[in-house]
Amino acid sequence: MKIQPPAIAAAALLSLAVAIIGCSSAMSDWAKAANENTVSSYQGFLAAHPKDQHASEAQAMILQLQDDNGWAEARDTGTDAAYQTYLQRYPQGTHSGAARDTMTSIDRATAWKTAQGEGGTAASVQAFLQKYPTGPEADQAKAKLKDLTGYGVRLARESSDVKAQRKLSQLKARFGDTLHDLVVTPDASGKSLFIDSSGMTEHEAERACDAIKHKHQACQVVRL
Asked: What is the Cα–Cα distance from 112 to 36, expressed in whole angstroms?
């Protein structure tokens, strides 16, 4: 067995001690950084131990915490611009899907207020629903549209398509100024054909019928 000179043995022991102390220091610093779980704690760990086994994990935690902090800031601000800023910084971030969904919700709510501010007409509500067919505001819009277009006036009933088309032409000539959209619609059995108006509110249908009856034409308010 070869015996090392005292100087060599001492150097080896010193190197081992340094390695143990360094390892212990890295482990302690990592535990401290993980316990604090902040961007600055992980950055401090990387500055002291750039090649440690936990270095890649520290880098990943920094990115995740920055993402989370950006998301928290966007939620606290709660504006479309704040969520847009988050997405510009973290387009593939953990919360990018939630950010896009929230922006859609904000845009949808704003558009619904605009549609109502435009008088809440059937045209404005239909335009809103074409752009936003789902969501809580869409449910409100559908209910509103049903109120706006759920009624009509019925002017005639015919037994054949030829008679119905002839009657339709006559009624359009007489009441085109009152009812702009008269159409032929079959009943459930398909045996009869009605001359009906397009959808309107119940009040509008009642008012139209009153005007038509004054011209001696039968008229009935119906639910479409």
From this structure: 45
